[in-house]
Amino acid sequence: MRLSQYFLPIMRENPKEAEIVSHRLMLRSGMIKQSGAGIYSWLPLGLKVLKKIEQVVREEQDRAGAIELLMPTLQSADLWRESGRYDDYGQEMLRITDRHGRDMLYGPTNEEMVTEIARDFIKSYKDLPKTLYHIQWKFRDEIRPRFGIMRGREFLMKDAYSFDLDEAEGRKSYNRMFVAYLRTFERLGVKAIPMAADTGPIGGDQSHEFIILADTGESEVFCHKDLLEQSVPDNVDYSADLEAERERWTTKYAATEEMHDAARFEKEVPEERRVSARGIEVGHIFSFGTKYSEPMNCTVQGKDNKMVSLYGGSYGIGVSRLIGAIIESSHDEDGIIWPAAVTPFDIGLLNLKAGDEQTDAACLDMYQKLAAAGLDVLYDDTGERAGGKFKRMDLIGLPWQIIAGPRSLKEGKVELKNRATGARDELSIEDVLQRFIK
Ligand code: P5A
């Protein structure tokens, strides 16, 4: 993409409404624009990152055996009356009436809708287990939307729903999602710790929140330091029993504020290993058994021909919130530092003398060769001063910058800058191209 033809509305001044760094940087780098309280447009640069995150989430869901579908954002109130949640959900639910006077709502979550699908199509224990997921916009009329897309009213969620014959099978599905979440966050370059959590309006008797530690996090969390130092293997066999892997993450103390037991924390964790910090909840998984299937009459034929209510769980990832969380854990005073897995472009190419015939030709040649090799390059071909170009490129945080000025180009050289370390190396054009084109 040539910057001169792109749409990248950078803000030079710090927006005063932004209280935390990720919100500030997303506004300044032209990723989002607020359109209402807790409601944002995704500008081209922000949308690119959103799509990348979505894709990593999708790949790890698929790998774990979950199956993608797409349910609507608008739902009928009657469906929610079946589970009894229409009245329970309260003011966070945006309620709408259609032209025929029918009560509808903008979905804050999809347990009811997916249970209706399972009720209609899953008839026998032989069809189990099944985990269905979608990546869809949600609306929650949050009392205090804040921190940009971090706590929005409209936000993008990946939500998966598992259906099993009984509790033992349900636990296996839960474990698969548990491990898939660890894999997902690891690939996104963030450390998210599973912590015992409260189940709130989704319900059920067990649940884990996946928390990224950050000073600007909304919740207070407590855990054993060992958990910050361990990682999940990358060749998970989802057909195997994952109980041991789950235990490796749940035996040591880790709890959110609502579930915190100070006496247990002090007893189980040696003082120097106690972490009490703030955290951002990027995922939340639930096992609620028959909470929805029973009132909604979602049953299958069991092995002994008796009808059984399906055993369920639901699993959410805050896809849009993750962008904020990643920026909170990866930035410096000059701007964002994107992990390679989610960066909006792979490389920024800076032409320091646009309009100069030789510089233009050399840059265009590099740009075309990189693009032909499948790399996504943002080519700054504008006529701006070098200082402004450096600042903007640092702000938007692409992992690599190729800096091409007429002086070094005369010797066939450019500078390669690593955004994370700040290291700048003068290399021949050939060497730089070879580094990226493999
Ligand atoms: C699990 C999937 C659920 O809704 N039902 C379907 C269950 N869980 S949850 O914890 O309420 O939400 C899942 C994740 O969505 C993100 N999230 C938000 N992101 C941005 N703005 C919000 N207002 C918001 N509310 C929830 C969180 O990452 C949460 O873990």
What tags apply to this protein structure?
binds '5'-O-(N-(L-prolyl)-sulfamoyl)adenosine, 2 domains, BirA Bifunctional Protein, domain 2, globular, five-stranded mixed beta sheet, 28% strand, 438 residues
Polypeptide structure, described:
With 438 residues, this protein is of the alpha+beta class. The protein folds into two domains: 3-336, Bira Bifunctional Protein, Domain 2 (BirA Bifunctional Protein, domain 2), CATH 3.30.930; 347-437, Anticodon-binding domain (Rossmann fold), CATH 3.40.50.800. It contains 14 helices and 23 strands. The protein has helices at 21-28, 44-63, 77-83, 85-88, 111-121, 167-187, 226-229, 243-250, 262-268, 319-329, 357-372, 386-396, 406-409, 429-436, and strands at residues 32-36, 39-42, 67-68, 74-76, 94-97, 103-106, 130-139, 154-164, 192-196, 206-213, 219-224, 254-256, 274-289, 299-301, 307-309, 311-318, 331-332, 335-336, 347-351, 377-380, 400-404, 413-418, 424-428. The strands form six sheets. Strands 3, 7, 8, 9, 10, 11, 12, 13 and 16 form a nine-stranded mixed beta sheet that branches. Strands 20-19-21-22-23 form a five-stranded mixed beta sheet, sandwiched between helices. The longest helix has 21 residues, at 167-187. The structure holds '5'-O-(N-(L-prolyl)-sulfamoyl)adenosine.
